[in-house]
Structures are given as C-alpha cells and as structure tokens.
Design brief:
Radius of gyration: 22 Å
Shape: globular
Order of helices and strands: HHHHHEEEEEEEEHHHHHH
Strand content: 5-15%
Number of strands: 8
Distance between the termini: 54 Å
Structural class: alpha+beta
Strand order of the largest sheet: 1-4-5-8
C-alpha cells in the first residue's frame, strides 16, 4: 500500500521533472494528475494511486511548500465535489477517462442541472423530459439556480424518462454538453447585485446514450451520490482555526474596541465556539470518508454551515453599526466564484441568505437528518406509489 514516504518520493519526482517556477501551470496540473497525485484515493490512471484519502494532505503540503500551482478548487467546486465522485462511482471506463482529467485540471468547468421552477425542495417531482430516439435522448425542460452555468462546458443533468411510474423511479442521469444547440443560459440577478446563479432552458437538446450515467430509470439513486457529496463539499470544507465567516467578525472585534458591547461580546463568543465545533466535526466527517462514500450525515454539516453563516454575518453587520449598512458595489456581474471573505460585511450578510436554499433547503435537510440519521419516523407520503403523470401539479 502507498504510504506517506512513498507519496513524498513521488511528489519530489514530480517537482524535479516539472519545476513549478519554469513549468506552465496547466502542464504542471496535467503532470500531477498523470502521476496519481491529484486525488490519491482515486484509482491509478484516474489521477490517483488507490491510497487512503487521509494521505492527500501529505501531497498537498509538499506541493504548497514548493510553490506549486493548485487547480483553483473554488472555481471548479461543482466538478470536484459533485460530478467527479458520481462519475467515478457510476461512469463507464470511457466516461472516466474522458471527463476526470480535464475536470480536475480545471480545463472544463461543470454545473449542476437538477432544480427546476416546480421541483426544488421536491426534486423528484422534476418535469424535464428525456425521450429516446435511436442512440440519442432528446431533452426538453427548464432548470434553475444553476451556479456557474455561464462558465460551464459540462453539466450533470437529471431528467424524467418514464412518466408512467412513481416519480423517484422514472428519472435518468445524463452528462450534458452546455455548448450543444438548444442550451440557453440566462442570468438570475440576486440580492447582492450579482448574477452568480442562472436559469437554463433546454430545447430539443440531443444527448447520446453514451453520456448516460447509470441505468435508465436509476437516476434518483445516482443523484443521491451527487447530493450527499454536495452537502459535504458545502458544509465540510477544510478551514483553519477561526477560518471562514467567523474570521472577519473576530478581526473587527479585535481591531475596533469602540464598537464593543457586553451583549455583542457574549454573542460573538457563542458563535466562535460553535464555529470551532463545526470545523472539528467537519474534520471528523472527512476522516470518516476514508471508509467510503459520504452518507446523510453531510446534511447536518450543511445545516450548521447555513445557520452559522447567517448568524455570524448578522452579528458583524450589527457590530459595525452604521458602517454595516453600507454596500460596496451593486454592479451586475457574473462572477466565477463566491468570495465571502473578500467582500464587505454587507455582501456577506446578503449572500448568506442563499446558504439555507442552495445545496438543499434547510427544511429538506432537517427531514433527512431526522429520518436517515436519527431514525425518526418518516413523514406521511401520499404520492409514493402514484405515477408521476397522475400527480397534481
């Protein structure tokens, strides 16, 4: 089995053959992938070495110390955190070879075509249709809240392929080329002034059956892999102590003593402790991933992430008083990533409102935690055995 010493040796060989100071960034990333040092727990030939996931930090530390470039993971988070693990688990050999390398290097950005105007919280009620025509599927429908659709080359897409069975059973999972004719991306301007999200209209788009992921009608099960990984990616990100949203609030407290009150002090202490507990819990969850795919526990982390972000950003605005009401820039932009700590307190406050919606609404995640983690009785469902076409809409 590959151990830390072996990974350090392989990393040293990579750095010797491709010195970061003189090697083109993309060439270095491709070489790192080919050396199995991209994600070491992936199989050989797919950017990994079949090593324990926990050893990735060994490689990352060696490369960071050498000044090597990374793949800008925040920009390609949907590909890394959602598309890649789903393709790895359900993709054919050809699909894995075609998609994983450019996905990891950032040459191809991915987005997620799941939510619809009438199927957000109840995602399984989606109405986008995919009809088989020979070796292709013809897809028609609309998706919404699609982060990075304006940048993406590829999308993970779920569509209804059988309306005559219950809603969870008639869904199939596809890989959609966002440059194909019939794909239209329109910006959705948010309360922050930016259009980070999009709505996507799909009109007669032809997807080859070779880009189907998993079996026909098994899309809901495939999508669970994506959704579980999404929640871990959002709520379980690796942070240093006093990292993330708590950092600017704590910094303001230290640098601006004239703003302090006893009440704000008590609230900040409480949120600082909760942030640290959440950070350590996320670390434990990542360690559990060594044993396999993430389960429903990630829903709890995503819940904590959303609540803490909203409470901390609200405290920071209140702490700053009149300054907290200022906003730096309402310009309509279509950004490449969300930068919570690179903008002002007003941006953090407004943008954090989306945290309880994106990646699964708080209400849905509470149900997941209750039923799948705590083992509480499921909510009554009257549509479980009803064909999708017969559901009231």
């Amino acid at each position: 089995m590959t151990d830390a010493a072996e990974l350090k040796r392989r990393t040293a060989e990579l750095l010797a053959a491709h010195p970061p100071a003189t090697t083109d960034r993309l060439d270095f990333l491709r070489a790192r992938f080919d050396a199995g040092l991209a994600w070491v727990h992936y199989p050989e030939g797919l950017g990994g070495l079949g090593a324990p996931r926990s050893l990735q930090v060994v490689v990352d530390a060696e490369l960071e110390a050498a000044g090597a470039p990374d793949n800008d993971p925040r920009r390609i988070g949907i590909g890394l955190g959602m598309a890649a693990p789903t393709i790895l688990k359900y993709g054919t050999d050809e699909q894995k070879q075609r998609f994983l390398r450019p996905l990891w290097t950032g040459e191809e950005v991915w987005c997620q075509l799941f939510s619809e105007p009438g199927a957000g919280s109840d995602l399984a009620a989606l109405g986008t249709r995919a009809v088989r025509e020979g070796e292709d599927w013809v897809v028609n429908g609309q998706k919404v809240w699609t982060s990075s659709a304006h940048l993406a080359r590829w999308a993970i897409l779920i569509a209804r392929t059988d309306p005559d069975v219950p809603k969870h059973a008639g869904i199939t999972y596809f890989l959609c080329d966002m440059t194909d004719p019939g794909v239209e991306v329109r910006p959705l301007r948010q309360i922050t002034g930016e259009a980070e999200f999009n709505e996507v209209f799909i009109s007669g788009v032809r997807i080859p059956d070779s880009r189907r992921l998993g079996e026909v009608g098994d899309g809901w099960r495939v999508a669970q892999t994506t959704l579980n990984n999404e929640r871990v990616a959002i709520g379980g990100m690796r942070l240093p102590r006093e990292g993330g949203m708590i950092a600017p609030a704590a910094r303001t407290w230290r640098e601006r003593p004239e703003l302090r009150t006893h009440d704000l002090h008590q609230r900040l202490l409480k949120l600082w402790v909760e942030s640290e507990v959440s950070r350590l819990t996320a670390e434990r969850l990542r360690q559990q991933l060594v044993a396999g795919q993430p389960g429903p526990e990630g829903a709890g982390m995503k819940l904590a992430f959303a609540r803490l972000n909203q409470e901390i950003s609200g405290l920071e605005v209140e702490l700053r008083g009149e300054e907290g009401l200022l906003y730096d820039d309402w310009t309509m932009r279509r950004p490449e990533l969300v930068d919570f700590v690179g903008r002002d307190a007003g941006y953090r406050y407004l943008r954090s409102k989306g945290n309880s919606i994106e990646g699964g609404t708080t209400e849905v995640l509470l149900n997941i935690v209750a039923e799948r983690v705590l083992g509480l009785p499921s909510e009554p469902r009257t549509d479980k055995d009803v064909a999708w076409k017969d559901l009231a809409r």
